[in-house]
Amino acid sequence: MQLPLAVQLPVEQQFDTFVAGPNQQLVAHTRSIVEALAKGAQQSFKQLFLHGANGQGKTHLLIALCHYANQLNLENFYISLRNFNHYTPDMLDGFAQIPLLCIDDLDAITDSEQWQVAVFDLINQRRENGNNALVLAANKNLAHPEKQDFSLTLPDLHSRMQWGDVYAYKALDDMDKVALLELLAEARGMKFSERAIQYLLNHCERRNDFLVDAMERLDKRSLQEQRALTVDLIKRELDT
Asked: Where is the Hda lid domain positioned along the sequence (predicted)?
């Protein structure tokens, strides 16, 4: 299959560094769908739509699912629509039959009817083909816009979001965030004291994406200075 664009999945965003927290049921369900597809069992079209605040882990989950599919030799693709204006909607033409497709940042196209039509058509095509899975994610609940003060320019796309399971992605609590930081530190071979972890949580932005970015920056600084991660190093690198 000739795919419209090449995407390199971030190596660090796998299940080894993922903390499900209150989203364990969702994670188990998505993994089971991937496993069933990889086994080649004939099944109907599966669609999931995830919505929740930005930076809470939705992107990590979608990318981890694609990594998991790779491990099971299942063809897959991840697309973010965050920079959709860099492409044309016909980019989606090559994705009607790929077994696992994950589309992220769907709410980025809320003002583009052309892109909404393209996504609408793609969902219809994948449902007609069957035996595949489509996982969609957005910051806003596009399945039930009446609960929020916004709407798409293509109302029919709202109904398509309701074709499958709709999940409200929940934020991690403090204990889950500690577990996330510990996993990230372990994956990088970083020495990270409990005091340093608590300082990071108490003095920095607590969104998952910020914590992941902060750990990457701290890892680089720690390697440069050839020293363990301390509160002083955190203060200097993150200007807290």
From this structure: 174-237
